């Protein structure tokens, strides 16, 4: 397989990125190279397509945006590394379940590189450390291609998560890499994670 093109978008408004992601997916064809976008967003709550209003516990000044990804409500802010994957699964000949596994495994391997032991939970997509969620993920498939991806908490203000049931789970505690390691180099972490994901993807499509 040809390796996806990796783009580091920096800090971008959520809605702008969301629209750009859909535009890319609507105009791509069978020859369009896959892409992976690394991005951060200003503070925003995003609601999944089957998200329930009751998972927003308190109204705040933080905007809430309805999306078409899977999952319930979550929170994005600077210091959280987002990785959007724009992949043609039909061309790669892999399924959605495998793709979720590659995402989760790439995060677990990244955290292990910093001596943080993480794991997945059955029927609760994402990655967890000591029972607390450190990475959320949600995907959408259109025309056999993926949109959205994962969000890894690195060094951010976790307080706004208290205003929601994260990913629809009441009482779920959130955590971040800063709670476990001293020195944070987000660029280094992001590069390791994306390279690990591409390795997972490559090994899965041989």
What does this structure look like?
Helix 3 packs across helix 4. It is globular and about 45 Å long. The model has no long low-confidence stretch (mean pLDDT 94). By secondary structure, the chain is α+β, with helices and mostly antiparallel strands. The protein contains four helices and ten strands; from the N terminus they run E-H-E-E-E-E-E-H-H-E-E-E-E-H. The strands form two sheets. A seven-stranded mixed sheet has the order 1-2-6-10-9-8-7, with helices on both faces. A three-stranded mixed sheet has the order 4-3-5, with no helix packed on it. The longest helix has 19 residues.
Radius of gyration: 16 Å
Run of helices and strands: EHEEEEEHHEEEEH
Helix content: 25-40%
Q: What is the CATH T-level topology?
A: BirA Bifunctional Protein, domain 2
- State the distance separating the first and last CA atoms: 8 Å
List low-pLDDT spans: none
CATH architecture assignment name: 2-Layer Sandwich
Number of domains: 1
Number of strands: 10
The profile of the biggest β sheet is:
7 strands, mixed
Structural class: alpha+beta
β content, as a range?
Answer: 25-35%
Brief descriptors of the model:
206 residues, alpha+beta, BirA Bifunctional Protein, domain 2, seven-stranded mixed sheet, three-stranded mixed sheet, 4 helices, 29% strand
Please write out the topology.
Blueprint: E1 5-11, H1 14-27, E2 35-40, E3 44-47, E4 64-66, E5 74-76, E6 80-86, H2 89-92, H3 96-113, E7 119-121, E8 124-129, E9 132-142, E10 145-153, H4 186-204
Parallel strand pairs: 1-2, 3-4
Antiparallel strand pairs: 2-6, 3-5, 6-10, 7-8, 8-9, 9-10
Helix pairs in contact: 3-4
